[in-house]
Amino acid sequence: MKILLIEDDEQIADLVASAFEAVGIQTQLEKDGFRGLRTALQLNFDAILLDVALPLMDGFQVLEEIRRNNLNTPVIMLTASIDLPDRLKSFEKGADDYLPKPFYMEELIVRVKAMINNKRGKVEMTLVQGDLSLDRFTRVATWQGEKATLTQREYVLLECLMTSPGQIFSREQILKQVWNVDFDPGTNVVDVSVQRLRKKLSSPSPKLGLAFPIETIRGVGYRFKTQS
Amino acid sequence: MLRSFKLKFFLLVTISIVFFAIVTRISVRYASTKPLHEIFYGNFASYLELSLKDQSLSDLNTQAIQQKINAFYSDLNPNEAQVWLSDTGNTAQQNMLSGAVWRNIRNPSRTYAVELAELRQGESDWILFKVPQSDQGNQGTQDFFVAIPARMFEARFEDMMEARESVVNSMWPLLVLCILLCTWFLTYWVMRSLQNLQNTFQKIDLKGNGNVSGSSSSSGNALSEKQFDVEFASFVGYFNSLIKRLQLNFEQASRFSSDAAHELRTPLTVIRGNLKRLLNRAQDNSVEQIQLSMLSDEVERLISITNKLVLLSQADGDNFKLDLQEIKLFDLIAVTGEDIQSLVPHVQFEYSVSPDIKLLADPSLFQQLLNNLVSNAIKYTPPQGKIKFNAKVFGDLVEFSLSNTTFLSLDGIDDRIFQRFYRHLNDPNIDTQRPKGDGLGLSLCQEIAKAHGGTLSLHKGPDQWVSFKATWQRA
Hints:
By secondary structure, chain A is an alpha/beta fold.
């Protein structure tokens, strides 16, 4: 898989490129709208990440040209604006997705993957990481043959950790992403929920050497263990 | 009541008119004494001239004239008025003449041959008339004198004044009515100009547009100076320039925070990304990892503040773009209830919402409002405290409230909590160790409610209850 990144900010380009590399996706970088458009039209990519504020040609113009040339490569717009008009404009001009800065790299990767799969006609109904699978529609998680239906919050929590294996999430971050609160309520709700997840999925006869993949990082938070 | 300009103006005009009437009456009363007396003297002089006309000195019967005068002034004592010729007067009469200062009768319309003197003889005042009487015969010229007690004229003068008084008194009710009518008309007329100004001012909206969808331009607010009286025109001009400056400041301020927040986004993305990368690479359970995690949390907080600032600056510029949808309050509250139970299990949560209540709101903004209110309630509810949510329909509106018991003392809590970055810090019950909010949440809640045409207000109840009450449009 190969994606084109059109972004003038070097730091962000570097971050995005290394994040994609870490999951095995190649990136090519162009630093202005004009070159970006030329490269997009010349070479084949699975997806294009397009910044809005670009030198020479802005992102919307590039997008317009891409679509005018009948190029159907999925495009995700990256922008510093969270305003509705900008979002609408992106979709009107033919963008497939829209991500306002500051975004989570993990989220970007998940969205790019989902978009590519969509284009290929695959909808990821089930999220699978090693022995653990999570059904996105029935909210049923399966681990080593043990099935459990998860509550809404448990599901979001597990999905959040599973989609970014190897990434550490602090308790505060989990609170924000799962419960939508940006303060510490002073209770151990995150720990309790993770405990409950583990309990729900604990197998009466676990395979030797295989622990439940959510790891506790002491003093920090939780991480979904990468399965090697 | 005295702050009413209308009333003050009414009273002032009434008092002025009454004062004017009183002053006029007093001054007429006193100023008219002399001219009126002169008229009486003139009348009498005419009478004398007429009586003595064509009478030669030889046939002059002073006795007869005296009787005539006594008859004319019926209230005179017999022979009190005296009449004599210059060479026939007795001693008393001659004494009278010696003290007399002669002058003409002051009447602008005619001149009299008769001269007059005012004098005091013994106990009484006299008015002395001198009529020069000539004779074609040999006896030459003699003066004819008539002395009338001054009280005769006084009495007639008083009679006249009394008559005038009674006429004026009969006019009072009419006068009062006139005063009231004049005042009412004046007040109405002055107030009309002010009312006009007030009505126009009421239409001014500082933010340039007041409606939720927001499409009008900011220049539409200037008042036309020609619409007003000249005296108000300069005032309106000044007001216009003030409004213009205010709007400019407003726009700049709201643009500034929006631009600043946008500029922060790119570096924040970089910081967040790099911190995450470092955190994931750090050795598990190392001090470094914990520190990086803390830093990462701070960055998240910064991002959250930036997002709120962008929303607030949009609210200031009335640039909230609302994607209005029907929202089922019951579903949202049910989920919120579960969250509260899991976040703070020791707090009791109750709610009473009819399942058919639907609101018209932007889903993400409404969710944010609810989250902020709930977060606030959770933060300040003590263990074993209570949180309550109620919603009711009133016609086209839904009124809902989120209430909680709190450990804060209610004294210092007031509408300031809706101010940006306001912190209720003085309370000794606040645990300084606990992370506090950014001071933007409630302010944002209020702006979100306003943008939807609703309201959000704070209410304090007994037993440490605090509640936030909102009114919202029904779907």
